[in-house]
């Protein structure tokens, strides 16, 4: 991994290329108060942007710690090679036309390979990127305007998109951005590499990652482990839907576990929080900067309007957040502060009886910030400062600040509309340790993310292999035989033709299944409860297109689960657990984890299923054997791990779960021969 310290904290900066972009880098560096030495490099010009220009980097008075290379693709490769030979600290490669453009220009991949060879072990950002802003040290290697301000501590934001990075710097939400770094097409230095380096800066309070794709999963695993050890939260804005490995959805699992299910499972595995959109991403980072991860999902809400209280309650209903009922002590304290005319509840509408009474507001609000509450929301929209007098709202700002100081509990002021949280007020609140949320919807997304239990990153790497090719689907008999070798319980069965040879080895009743059919139950390929040889023969005769059959002893009734594994091209093997049987896709009740997963991971996934109460004794029914269920799922996982990439897909559906056992009533395997 390249050492990024010199590049991100340069004492000297060289700009190579005297066009408008290069001049803008020097202008922005000076404007941001850069205290290091600036150099300009141009083969003809003697100066630009007021800085003396040298004909080449080899003519500079010193070896620069950082360089912005703002010249064309081919010239960039030569400049980077000269920088590397001088032992420079690193470079930002602004030019495009490398691997990111290989679809339009086949020479782009070769150009990128030559750039990497030229760079060697000297770190480069990009190519096709704007560079970075280090607002902690006053460094801007950036060819455009930006909205960053100098800060003493703050969050780091990493993205491949230069345009989105500019937009984020322009936010007026009061979020202190310590680093804004663009990675371009990540030819050498990836987002994970950059974030790993930033974890060594104690001024970084949280790291936000706008992710288009993960690439090398091991780097992300290393990042998650280091971030966990340093207690620095990571937040992802993951975009794009990876193409699932399945070309033909012969199983239910393939259709249920498509899209970015595997990406979410990977983030969960690493303990990385996820935001659904850009505003929520920024609000989540803001919450984490001020308060860190929340202890639970128990919140309280305060507003001076019944309409706002109802709005908060209704919007929160769509999130994994709870409003605990007020304790007796809270009700007593609130009654003393608010009097008899206020209905005491959480969310609390405190009316306007105490408005402008800062002491009373502080007392009432502090009561809501009880020790068992993870975060208290004060709903407060400020007037427009261009046509209104906002002086009346100072009492509320002060009450929130005093409340935070008095209780020591996490407190947030929430403007329901993002534009009604003025930036100066946000800065004042944040200085006092109060989270200034801009937008109720964004705030609730942030609170939900920050309150979600974070997994300790798995010590085992994700099982990722090249996609299985030239695959064949095993017969049910062969699939069950293969899985039984890894201790999955299966019914006693025979594989036969119309002669039903071997039937005497089974105990009636049996089930007859036609071989060679996908989704057999949908096309009449399954006949249950055959109680004699004659009924077996009748069942076979009814399946006019079948020549071979799988006949097995009937399983006892029980709760039905689906256990499936699919091979995701970007994230490895995805293990999906869900409601099984013929209603699998209709119910769409699934949870997914990546292989390998521990017994604890699997049990947690089971608890998140909507059908979990059916496994634990719903309405007086006998509970299923959860250990047997877990062992069955682990058996499927063990089979996949042992095949070393030959498996494309496995499905057990249903896994019939009872108080005694978990038995695979049907199984499918698609793999290389």
TrEMBL record:
Q: Which UniProt keywords apply?
A: Tricarboxylic acid cycle
Which GO BP terms sit in this record?
tricarboxylic acid cycle
GO molecular function annotation: ATP binding
* Name of a matching Pfam family: Succ_CoA_lig
Domain CoA-binding, which positions?
7-98
Query: Which Gene3D superfamilies does the entry mention?
Result: ATP-grasp fold, A domain, ATP-grasp fold, B domain, NAD(P)-binding Rossmann-like Domain, Succinyl-CoA synthetase domains
* Descriptive protein name: Acyl-CoA synthetase (NDP forming)
């Amino acid at each position: 991994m390249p050492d990024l310290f010199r590049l991100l904290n340069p004492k000297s900066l060289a700009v190579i290329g005297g066009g408008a972009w290069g001049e803008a880098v020097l202008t922005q560096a000076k404007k941001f108060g850069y205290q290091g030495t600036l150099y300009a490099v141009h083969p003809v010009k003697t100066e630009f942007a007021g800085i003396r220009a040298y004909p080449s980097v080899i003519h500079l008075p010193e070896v620069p710690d950082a360089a912005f290379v703002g010249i064309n693709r081919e010239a960039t490769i030569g400049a980077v090679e000269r920088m590397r030979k001088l032992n420079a600290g690193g470079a930002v490669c602004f030019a495009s036309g490398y691997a990111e453009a290989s679809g339009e220009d086949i020479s782009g991949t070769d150009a990128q390979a030559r750039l990497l060879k030229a760079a060697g072990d000297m770190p480069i950002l990009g190519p096709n990127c704007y560079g970075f802003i280090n607002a902690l040290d006053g460094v801007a290697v950036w060819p455009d305007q930006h909205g960053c301000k100098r800060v003493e501590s703050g969050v780091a934001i990493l993205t491949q998109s230069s345009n989105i990075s500019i937009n984020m710097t322009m936010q007026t939400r009061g979020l202190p951005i310590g680093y804004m770094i663009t990675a371009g097409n990540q030819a050498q230095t990836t987002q994970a590499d950059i974030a790993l380096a930033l974890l060594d800066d104690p001024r970084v309070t949280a790291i936000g990652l706008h992710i288009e794709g993960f690439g090398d999963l091991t780097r992300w695993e290393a990042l998650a482990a280091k971030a966990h050890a340093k207690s620095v939260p990571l937040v992802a804005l993951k975009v794009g839907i990876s193409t699932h490995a399945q070309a033909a959805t012969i199983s239910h699992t393939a259709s249920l576990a498509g899209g970015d299910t595997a990406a979410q499972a990977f983030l969960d595995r690493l303990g990385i929080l996820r935001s659904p959109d850009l505003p929520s991403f920024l609000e989540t980072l803001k919450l984490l900067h001020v308060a860190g991860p929340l202890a639970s999902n128990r919140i309280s809400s305060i507003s001076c309007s019944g309409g706002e209280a109802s709005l908060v309650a209704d919007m929160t209903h769509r999130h994994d957040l709870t409003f605990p009922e007020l304790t007796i002590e809270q009700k007593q304290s609130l009654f003393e502060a608010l009097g008899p005319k206020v209905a005491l509840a959480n969310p609390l509408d405190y009316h306007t009886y105490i408005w402008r009474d800062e002491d009373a507001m502080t007392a009432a609000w502090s009561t809501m910030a009880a020790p068992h509450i993870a975060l208290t929301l004060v709903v407060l929209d400020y007037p427009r400062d261009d046509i209104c007098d906002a002086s009346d709202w100072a009492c509320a700002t002060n009450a929130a600040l005093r409340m935070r100081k008095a209780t020591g509990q996490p407190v947030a002021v929430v403007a329901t509309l993002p534009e009604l949280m003025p930036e100066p007020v946000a800065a004042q609140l944040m200085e006092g340790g109060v989270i200034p949320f801009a937008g109720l919807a964004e705030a609730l997304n942030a609170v939900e993310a920050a309150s979600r239990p974070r997994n300790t990153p798995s010590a085992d790497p994700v099982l990722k292999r090249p996609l299985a090719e030239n695959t064949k689907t095993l017969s049910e008999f062969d699939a069950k035989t293969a899985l039984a070798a890894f201790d999955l319980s299966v019914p006693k069965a025979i594989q036969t033709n119309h002669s039903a040879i071997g039937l005497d080895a089974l105990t009636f009743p049996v089930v007859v299944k036609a071989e060679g059919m996908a989704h057999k139950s949908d096309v009449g390929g399954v006949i249950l409860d055959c109680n004699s040889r004659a009924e077996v023969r009748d069942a076979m005769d009814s399946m006019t297109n079948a020549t071979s059959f799988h006949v097995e002893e009937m399983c006892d009734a029980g709760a039905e689960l689906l256990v499936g594994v699919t091979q995701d091209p970007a994230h490895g093997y995805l293990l999906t657990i869900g409601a099984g049987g013929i209603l699998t896709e209709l119910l769409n009740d699934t949870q997914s984890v990546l292989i390998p997963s521990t017994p604890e991971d699997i049990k947690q996934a089971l608890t998140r299923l909507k059908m979990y109460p059916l496994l634990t004794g719903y309405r007086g029914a006998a509970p299923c054997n959860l250990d047997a269920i877990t062992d069955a799922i682990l058996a499927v996982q063990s089979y996949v791990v042992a095949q070393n990439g030959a498996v494309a897909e496995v499905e057990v559906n249903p896994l019939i779960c009872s108080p005694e056992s978990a038995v695979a009533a049907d199984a499918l395997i698609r793999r290389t021969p």
